[in-house]
Structures are given as structure tokens and as C-alpha cells.
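Morning!

This is the sequence you dropped in the shared folder:
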Amino acid sequence: MKKEVRKKSVVPVYALAVLWLLYALFFPLYKILHFIILIVLAIVIYIVFSKMFPGKIVMVEQPKNEETGNPEVDAVVREGKRAMQEMGRLYSSIENPDVKKRIVEIMDISDKIVKNAISDPKDIPNIKRFLNYYLPTTIKLLNAYDRMAVQGIEGENISGTITRIEDMLDTVVVSYKKQLDALFADEALDIETDIKVMDGLLQREGLKDKEM
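The structure's back. C-alpha cells below.
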């Protein structure tokens, strides 16, 4: 949504700068009276030039109010945002391109899962479970990966853990996709029911081609 906003002109400001410069060059400035005269002139100049150059009207995009009014939904969305911020930090910190790719996938799926709370609040219990365990555990693993990857040495503990986390991320991506798909189970069932009802109605009304 856009809103009209008046953008002030810079001309009055430039006029004040010119006034101060000219006054300092040609008139004395060593008594209080001199400064009072200059201030009065500055006010007059600013008012006059502000009326002569009022600026222009521009359309400004208004920030979206992402609060839904549902405290439970808003809490889920806020928690999701915090998790996405941490995932974004890990993406910037971790250098392995394959891991970064997995992080992008995880963030994309996670964002869709969280946003489903807005479109379908009845899924909130499942989304909360995702936010309270699955996503924090994934972030914990990535933080461990980030710490170990920068050590610059190979060892049984460090190298082994890094490899296990890298392998685990593929499983995480698949599991997250299944979680997102599961959130649409009820909707898919409703749509299937609507399709069957529509199909039966078309047949009864003789509107459905037999070949179809």
C-alpha cells in the first residue's frame, strides 16, 4: 500500500546557507544584536522560500503490518523470524557451498511452514512442534558445524562430526518437505471431496462428457 508524502525542497536550506555566508562577508557579527538580526532574516527567508518551493508529493510504500491480530499466530511468526535470522547468519558464516545450498533449502521450506500458520491456524500445533524441536535442533547442528569447520585441523572428532552433519542435512531437507506436505493433508482431502461432489453434480445434470 502506498501513501502520499510531501518531500520538502532543499532550496530553503540552501537559501539560509547563502544568507549566512553573505551576512558574514558584508556585515559585522560581534554583537548579540547582529545575531538577532541574522536570525530574524533567516526565519523570514526560510518562510518565503518554503512557500515558493513547497517541495513535491511522492508516493511512498507503507510498511506492511505483519501482525494478524491472532496472538497464537503472531507468536509463531515471530519465532519463525528469529530462527530465519539465525539461519541467515549461519549461511553467511559457513563457507562450504553444498552446506550453504542446504541451508537455503531449509530456510525456504521453513518459511513456508511458518507462513502456513497464517493461512491455516489449525495447523499451529504441528508448526509449534516443528519450531520447538526440529528447527532448533537443525540450527544447533549447523552452529556446531560452523564452530568445527573453522578449526582448520582434521581429527576423528572434528572431521567425523562435520561429515555426519553434512550427511544429516540431506535427511533434514527431505523431512522438512514431508512436514510441509503433511500440513496440506486436510486441505487436499477437502479439495478431493469437492471434486467428487462437483463431478457427481455434472454427471446428474448431463454436463459432463462421457469421454471425460
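Headline: Helices lie at 11-26, 32-52, 71-93, 97-119, 124-149, 156-182, 185-204.

More detail when I'm at my desk.
O.
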